[in-house]
Design brief:
single chain; about 575 residues; mainly beta; Tachylectin-2, Chain A; Jelly Rolls; six-stranded mixed sheet; about 5% helix; disulfide bond; fructan beta-(2,1)-fructosidase
Length: about 575
């Protein structure tokens, strides 16, 4: 099963096929192995990670080894829908330019004969990287396996060996064998034991099952789970430390799980537990404390431990995985962005799925949330630059940002609000449904303070446009709530495309500053937005039919009564990096 280098047009006439749901993905058995013959590039991203063709989903086992960043990912080498899943493998020196290698892990043994699903990488104290992944055995049970590099002197880690003692963790009595997957990076405790977590469910109870081992071969289930919640299946769990402000290291610095055996380090960190909820298709997280002796994780009271809690991203961002980057002392986050067009579209274009731009992730100085920001290396792609400064935008007005090609760009905007007096009244019932609020008060609905922001991937007549905007509400005379939205409801003439509004609240004191910033990465069919310096992040997939290439425009708009000012807008065209050419090429 080899990764191809060309891609895609299958038959344009839709096939009549039946579909089933399997492992959180809709399965089209008759389409799984219909290989693409050529590729449609019109809406392919320019600087986001994706292979030359076919289906991808979860990022797996990211790590840094001997000067190279490694990213493995779930891949179908035979078609543009989910199926035939293997671990594809790419390497980079900067997280931006990528070279594709041959697949790292694919079904070869009874313990993974029906698929090699998601997992993580752990660097052992002797420097040996090890992969833990979920295999599907002949009985369709989900079991956990381990793989080691065949040649440690090869920085590309091109070959991996699966020991015959696999599987190392099996679903024992009381574990749902059809929902038992996605092992985390392991951590080494002060007691000399390795520990890791596997996601599962019991009815509506999502569970992070805890296992421990002395030798990384024999694993024993702990007497109780690391944590659990009544939110349905927990997929792709991630558990890692973050530095807190006031400690011996800067709060933006990453913390390696390998350091957790040091009790001094352990006292200067908080812990993040992230789970991907199968029922909602979002990644939720809490921040809390971890008791090494009792093997218990406890979220801090400020973090709702349910599906109304904080998310990494309030848009199309799922199955994320983080890793510690020792080269730059940071934690880097990867996340998968699925397509929201149709299966027929995916077959036609020959590809489906991208990875979001990798993000640096750290705990805010206040400790109230995580902050995410595109890794600094993405700036190396910036080229032609335009700037707008101190431009007032009255209610109902808009203007175009000209002088550059916005279809593949990076835009940073700082807004100032003249006054907040006209902010609309906020209903406390809205607090748990930002997305519903954005749908009700979308970018076309006039407001008091906002909506204001950007129309991007817009046609010259504005018939096609995607809106990224803020709207301010007031709870009383001195307190305000800021809503951030990605609104693609007018993003395409194509009627069959799924176009949900995505939204999240932004934790800023807008009354004090009257300022808010927005960074937006625009890349043909994806819009990644970072509000208030990365406090709220929203990724949206869009598929314009007219606003493509040189016909894609960028506007600043204000559809509120209160005037705003663009203090500064900096926009750069983005170059196209090397993206997954085979190493031999």
């Amino acid at each position: 099963e080899e990764m191809g280098t060309a891609a895609a047009v299958l038959a344009l006439v839709p096939l009549l096929c039946w579909a089933v749901v399997h492992a959180s993905h809709v399965v089209y058995p008759e389409l799984q192995s219909l290989e693409a013959k050529e590729v449609i590039t019109e809406l392919r991203t320019g600087y986001h990670f994706q292979p030359p063709k076919h289906w991808i989903n979860d990022p797996n086992g990211p790590m840094y080894y001997k000067g190279l960043y490694h990213l493995f990912y779930q891949y179908n080498p035979k078609g543009a829908v989910w199926g035939n899943i293997i671990w594809a493998h790419s390497v980079s020196t900067d997280l931006i330019h990528w070279v594709a290698l041959q697949p790292a892990i694919y079904p070869t043994k009874p313990f993974d004969v029906n698929g090699c699903w998601s997992g993580s990488a752990t660097l052992l104290p002797n420097g040996v990287p090890v992969i833990m992944y979920t295999g599907i055995d002949p009985h369709k049970n989900q079991v956990q396996n381990v793989a080691y590099p065949a040649n440690l002197s090869d920085p590309f880690l091109r070959e991996w060996v699966k020991p015959e003692y696999n599987p190392i963790i099996t679903p024992d009595h009381g574990i749902n064998a059809s929902a038992f997957r996605d092992p985390t990076t392991a951590w080494y405790g002060p007691d000399g034991h390795w520990r890791l977590v596997v996601g599962t469910k019991e009815n509506m109870r999502g569970i992070a099952v805890l296992y421990r081992s002395r030798d990384f071969k024999k694993w024993v289930k702990a007497r109780h789970s690391l944590h659990a919640g009544l939110t349905g299946m927990w997929e792709c769990p991630d558990f890692f430390p973050v530095a807190v402000a006031g400690g011996s290291r800067h709060h933006q610095s990453g913390v390696d799980t390998a350091e957790l055996h040091d009790r001094v380090v352990a006292e200067e960190v908080k812990y993040v537990l992230k789970v991907s909820l199968e029922l909602t298709r979002y990644d939720y997280y809490t921040v809390g404390t971890y008791d090494h002796d009792k093997e218990r994780y406890t979220p801090d009271p400020a973090f709702p431990d349910n599906d109304y809690g904080l998310r990494y991203d309030y848009g199309d961002f799922y199955a994320s995985k983080s890793f510690f980057d020792p080269a730059k002392k940071r934690r880097v986050l990867w996340g998968w962005a699925n397509e929201s067009d149709t299966v027929t579209d995916d077959r036609h274009k020959g590809w489906a799925g991208i990875q979001a731009i990798p993000r640096k992730i750290f705990l805010s100085r206040s400790g109230r949330q995580l902050i995410q920001w595109p890794v600094e290396e993405v700036k190396s792609l910036r080229s032609k630059h335009v700037n707008v400064s101190n431009k007032a935008v009255k209610g109902g007005e808009y203007f175009e940002v000209t002088g550059f090609k916005s279809v593949q760009s990076d835009v940073e905007t700082a807004f100032t609000i003249r006054n907040l007096d006209k902010a609309e009244k906020f209903d406390p019932a809205w607090r748990t449904d930002a997305q519903g609020l954005c749908k009700k008060f979308n970018s076309h609905v006039k407001g008091g303070v906002g909506p204001f922001g950007l129309w991007l991937l817009a046609s010259d007549d504005l018939e096609e446009r995607t809106a990224v905007f803020f709207r301010v509400f007031k709870t009383n005379d001195t307190n305000y709530v800021v809503l951030m939205c990605n609104d693609p409801t007018r993003s395409s003439y194509e009627s069959q495309i799924y176009r949900p509004t995505f939204a999240g609240f932004v934790n800023v004191d807008i009354a004090k500053t009257k300022k808010i910033a927005l960074r937006t990465l625009i890349d043909h069919s994806v819009v990644e937005s970072f509000g208030a310096g990365g406090k709220t992040c929203i990724l949206t997939r869009v598929y314009p039919r007219k606003a493509i290439g040189d016909d894609a425009h960028l506007f600043v708009f204000n559809n509120g009564e209160s005037d705003i000012k663009v203090t500064n807008l900096h926009a750069w065209e983005m170059k196209t990096p090397t993206m997954n050419k085979l190493l031999e090429q």
